[in-house]
Amino acid sequence: xxxxxxxxxxxxxxxxxxxxxxxxxxxxxxxxxxxxxxxxxxxxxxxxxxxxxxxxxxxxxxxxxxxxxxxxxxxxxxxxxxxxxxxxxxxxxxxxxxxxxxxxxxxxxxxxxxxxxxxxxxxxxxxxxxxxxxxxxxxxxxxxxxxxxxxxxxxxxxxxxxxxxxxxxxxxxxxxxxxxxxxxxxxxx
Length: 189
Prior knowledge:
8 strands, 189 residues, Porin, eight-stranded antiparallel beta barrel
């Protein structure tokens, strides 16, 4: 058990992630722009193929979400991550975790808002070394980035379509990880 704490406390990248999240959190209640500070709820469905490498797999996920407007053009979201990696020839990989995402909405064209998204998260997975690209621990780090469109359907309901490059790997060990080109469809209310 002491080895796990030494890995976590001795890892500089772990502390840099925690510091960045705390830094953003310090300014969250102070930065409202023209939007109301109401929490927006939503969920999305993600589907994506392997981005590179010899391993053939498909990534699917259900992403429940809670979001908050930081400013007129910036938003902060927290997503649950219930993922399944269907890996051909190996045991399937399941994830349960949380992602923090930052959204940038540069313009609004009537009912359409294009946005850029970047985020990171942590998840528990069922890997015990059988997916060698993920190392041998049950912890997974998630990094993602992409872009999409929000469409106002009226009465506070938004349709959301986006593309994300999604990287998953062990945050405490050096490994190849799994990369996907993911397409996401969801609603926000």
